[in-house]
Amino acid sequence: MSLDVRDLFYNYDGKPVLKDVSFQIKEGEILGILGPNGCGKTTLLGNLNRNLSPKGGCVMLDGRDLEEHKKKDIAKDIAVVPQDSRVGFSFTVREIVSMGRMPFQEAFQGDSPEDLRIIDDAMKKTNVLEMADRYINTMSGGERQKVIIARAVAQTPKILLMDEPTLHLDISAQFDILDLVYSLSRNEGLTVVIVSHDLPMVARYCDRIMMIHDYTIHALGKTEDVLTPENMRTVFGVDAELSVDSKTGKNTIIMHGSTTNEP
């Protein structure tokens, strides 16, 4: 399934947030969208599942304008893990994950045997099955985030959109969550888009990286081509370089400091 963004423009109160944004998301890849706070990353993500509608340009899902799709149909193909995983009510883990089946159900239909199988499978894949009867508002941030991902997996999507998925999590939970997402992409063929400002995490897990700067795409491509010292200096104002972790063989970022106060 393809997602193709063409000449996307979006503004708030007449002020541009995104302009001339064009790119294609490749099937089965993990694409990281990087940029500092307030650069339009979350706005772009909202346009990718029609939570927001472009002011100009379009987003094409399998060759058809997303605006022509019903939201319920979009939810069968595209799932979202929001930035804030807090839930205001005392739902059990199973009840939360069951909500992922709603796009496939009529009102008051309830879960079919097939729905129940998919729900259990989603909990197994995300390692939360043993927590099925726990209440989500009693869980740690990392545990809760896994449950929200399980809900998204229960939608059986082709594309998963994630907005700052490791925000507010401790270091161990950050690795757990992104290891899980990487596994889902590789083992299930899930296409993943991760919005983040965490340079090291994106460098480690993403196949391609997009940098947003001055309302548009500053760079897009392979990690080593995008995370150059020049680009990180321009977009984030940091003196940093891409390296390879000698122990894991994975990409990492070495931070030398801010460039803000340099002469």
Q: How does this model look, in words?
A:
The chain has one domain: 3-Layer(aba) Sandwich (Rossmann fold), CATH 3.40.50. The strands form three sheets. A six-stranded mixed sheet has the order 6-7-8-3-9-10, with helices on both faces. Strands 2-1-4-5 form a four-stranded antiparallel sheet, with helices on one face. With 263 residues, it is of the alpha/beta class. A hairpin with a 6-residue loop joins strand 11 and strand 12 (251-258). The chain has helices at 41-48, 71-77, 93-98, 113-125, 141-154, 171-188, 199-205, 223-226, 229-236, and strands at residues 3-12, 15-25, 30-34, 56-61, 64-65, 78-81, 159-163, 191-196, 208-213, 216-222, 238-244, 251-258. 36% of the residues are buried. Helix 5 runs parallel beside helix 6 (171-188).
List the SSEs and their pairings.
Layout lengths: L2 E10 L2 E11 L4 E5 L6 H8 L7 E6 L2 E2 L5 H7 E4 L11 H6 L14 H13 L15 H14 L4 E5 L7 H18 L2 E6 L2 H7 L2 E6 L2 E7 H4 L2 H8 L1 E7 L6 E8 L5
Parallel strand pairs: 3-8, 3-9, 6-7, 7-8
Antiparallel strand pairs: 1-2, 1-4, 4-5, 9-10, 11-12
Helix pairs in contact: 4-5, 5-6
